[in-house]
Design a protein that fits this description.
- This protein is an alpha/beta fold and 446 residues long.
- The chain has 2 domains: 140 residues, FAD/NAD(P)-binding domain, CATH 3.50.50; 214 residues, FAD/NAD(P)-binding domain.
- The chain contains 15 helices and 23 strands.
- A hairpin with a 2-residue loop joins strand 5 and strand 6.
- Helix 6 runs antiparallel to helix 7.
- It starts with a strand and ends with a helix.
- The structure holds flavin-adenine dinucleotide (FAD).
- Flavin-adenine dinucleotide binds next to helix 1, strand 2, strand 4, helix 8 and helix 11.
- The site of flavin-adenine dinucleotide has 34 residues, from helix 1, strand 2, strand 4, helix 8 and helix 11.
Length: 446
């Protein structure tokens, strides 16, 4: 009999923290993930706006786990799970693989939801992956470049109108950063246009930005954004979109077409397609966002050997945040370890401890909500910097991030402004070429 085999799908917070927490356990771990890196999603917006490079927020998983001898990392896209035979089916491009498991931990996270309007994705990339952030970087800086070439003032306005959809933390952070980029970073660099004339709009269907932070902080965030020059439009829904515009409907039902070339989608979450696969194979239920409803011990019904954690699990009162993934990962690792030792687990039911929420608005401005403590402004921004630095994996990444923050926050310069045509067009070009043109690892879809 070999050692107990734990297969972990995903190398995000859920996958990585489960792997690390099992480092001393008598198990063989196989981590299978569709990207070779561990992505720190909370700082994606800084990659998109030229503050950080992708390597700083996405170190190689293989490097992180180099010294963990009981863990192996494989790059591949999991497509199916045979829950009877206990085998994971996956592929690396056109190479098909099968990996058997005794315990399976599914930490495949969530993607962007366009609320049934998937064609919006063509015009407004989401913010979930390194690819998304680099495409957005190319689109944002590219809009200024195109505007510099234009003679027609209407077309210049269209190119210099940036629309961010969704006023959660990511939308607020993106809008604030694009505004700073336009007003400060790019000042004096163009000859035909004044980048500071750019419009930045932040749209949301809710009455205030950052609904999870409560009314008071939402109001303060709105005022701070407006003080920077961001146009915040709340109670406003996007009804349509094309390459040149966004159409919106406000609370009174007034429809308006906003000419805008560069759009960012930061609204809506949809569980990974692996959630549906698991539901079909095990009879587990999905919630409206496609997340898997798990039992109190985070297993799926009738399958004590299959755990779903992080953004893909649906558990009442647990938000889709890093702490949800980290805490569920540690809980599952402790449970698996206790089972193998035949010991009582420290806890048989998962309980979530809310550690609060935070978001930056702009340089030296942030909002923090931890229990009864509500902070805004500079102290909140310092707390935000400290905590985010703490959770970046890897000392090298932490040091380089700190250096880049100094450059950006003290001089307002951005050190990561490189953009390429491939970043800008590759996603849509691949979609147009179709499945035959690339392996499934690239497209991820049938
Ligand atoms: C832009 C943004 C900003 C955020 N900001 C914050 C914040 O400030 N604070 C906070 O607490 N949380 C924040 N979050 C949420 C937080 O990042 C997530 O809750 C957390 O990453 C969830 O971890 P996870 O492991 O469940 O999923 P993920 O981190 O998404 O990891 C999923 C993993 O599964 C892999 N995968 C997916 N499908 C497959 C497949 N079929 N086969 C193989 N591998 C697969 C992926 O490659 C990835 O490695 C933010 C999220 C985003 C997108």
């Amino acid at each position: 009999m070999g050692r107990h085999r734990v297969v972990i799908i995903g190398s995000g917070f859920g996958g990585l923290f489960t792997t690390r927490a099992l480092s001393r356990s008598d198990v063989d771990i196989t981590v299978i993930a569709r990207t070779g890196h561990h992505l720190f999603q909370p700082l994606l917006y800084q990659v998109a706006t030229g503050i950080l490079s992708e390597g700083e927020i996405a170190p190689a998983t293989r490097e992180i786990l180099r010294d963990q001898r009981n863990a192996r990392v494989l790059l591949g896209l999991v497509e199916d799970i045979d829950t009877d035979a206990r085998v994971v089916h996956w592929r690396n491009h056109n190479r098909l693989e099968e990996t058997p498991y005794d315990t399976l931990v599914v930490a495949a996270g969530a993607g962007q939801s366009y609320f049934g309007n998937d064609h919006f994705a063509t015009f407004a990339p989401g913010m979930k992956t390194i690819d998304d952030a680099l495409e957005l970087r190319a689109r944002i800086f590219g809009a200024f470049e195109l505007a510099e070439l234009e003679q027609d003032p209407d077309r210049v306005r269209e190119l210099l109108t940036f629309v961010v959809v969704g006023a959660g933390p990511t939308g607020v952070e993106m809008a604030g950063q694009i505004r700073e980029l336009a007003s400060k970073t790019l000042r004096g660099e163009f000859r035909s246009i004044d980048p500071a004339q750019a419009r930045v709009l932040l749209l949301d269907g809710a009455p205030l930005p950052l609904p999870v932070f409560g009314r008071k902080l939402g109001k303060r965030t709105q005022l701070a954004l407006e003080g920077l020059g961001v146009e915040v439009r709340t109670s406003t829904l996007v009804t349509d979109m094309d390459a040149e515009s966004v159409t919106v409907r406000d609370a009174e039902g007034t429809i308006e077409r906003i000419p805008s070339v560069c759009k960012v989608w930061a609204a809506g979450v949809q569980g990974s397609p692996l959630g549906r696969v698991l539901a079909e194979r095990t009879g587990a239920q999905l919630d409206r966002a496609g997340r898997v409803q798990v039992g109190p011990d985070l297993t799926v019904p009738d399958h004590p050997e299959i755990f779903v954690i992080g953004d893909l699990m649906s558990v009442e009162g647990v938000p889709g945040v890093a702490q949800g993934a980290i805490q569920s990962a540690r809980f599952v690792a402790a449970l698996v370890d206790a089972r193998l030792k035949g010991a009582e687990p420290a806890a048989s039911h998962f309980t979530y401890t809310d550690r609060g929420s935070m978001a930056t608005i702009a340089r030296f401005k942030a909002v923090v909500s931890v229990g009864r403590v509500k902070m805004t402004g500079f102290p909140a921004w310092l707390a935000w910097c400290f905590l985010h630095l703490l959770y970046i994996v890897g000392f090298k990444q932490q040091v380089i991030t700190l250096v880049h923050w100094f450059i950006s926050f003290l001089s307002r310069a951005r050190s990561e402004r490189t953009t390429t045509n491939q970043q800008m067009v590759a996603r849509l070009a691949l979609e147009r070429l179709g499945e035959g043109s690339s392996g499934k690892l690239v497209t991820g879809e049938e």
